[in-house]
Every structure is written in structure tokens, then in C-alpha cells.
Design goal:
The chain is mainly α. The chain has four helices and no strands. It has a single domain, classed as 434 Repressor (Amino-terminal Domain), CATH 1.10.260. It is elongated and about 40 Å long.
Length: about 70
């Protein structure tokens, strides 16, 4: 798996409260997420994009808090 996949999944997990919560948010099993985080396989594009959405939404929320 590329480092961008790993970094995005790890960061998203931190944002939502851990790997179990991220698996739930992504609609996948914990074992699937563990496989991707261990570099055993890349996540499907649809799952990766959901993780990107989590990261992006958090960034937008932080920026909007700074603007207000």
C-alpha cells in the first residue's frame, strides 16, 4: 500500500476515535481495515475516498472555526 493510503487511514482513525470507529464509518470490518493498515493490500478506491472525506470534513471544520 502506498504511504498516502496508510497516512490517510491512520489520520482518519485518529479523527474519529480509533480504528474500530473508522471501520464502522467506512462500512468495513476491522479485519479488512487491519489488512490495509498493515500494508497487506490497498483499500478499495471507494473506501479510500470515504477516508479522504473524513479528513477533508475535519479540515473544513477547523478552518471554519478559525474564521468565525
Amino acid at each position: 500500500m502506498s504511504s498516502v493510503h496508510f497516512q490517510t487511514l491512520e489520520y482518519a482513525a485518529g479523527l474519529v476515535g480509533g480504528e474500530e470507529q473508522l471501520a464502522h464509518r467506512l462500512g468495513v470490518s476491522s479485519s479488512e481495515l487491519d489488512l490495509w493498515l498493515a500494508g497487506g493490500a490497498p483499500p478499495p478506491v471507494s473506501v479510500f475516498l470515504k477516508a479522504v472525506d473524513i479528513v477533508t470534513d475535519a479540515a473544513i471544520a477547523r478552518l471554519s472555526n478559525h474564521i468565525d
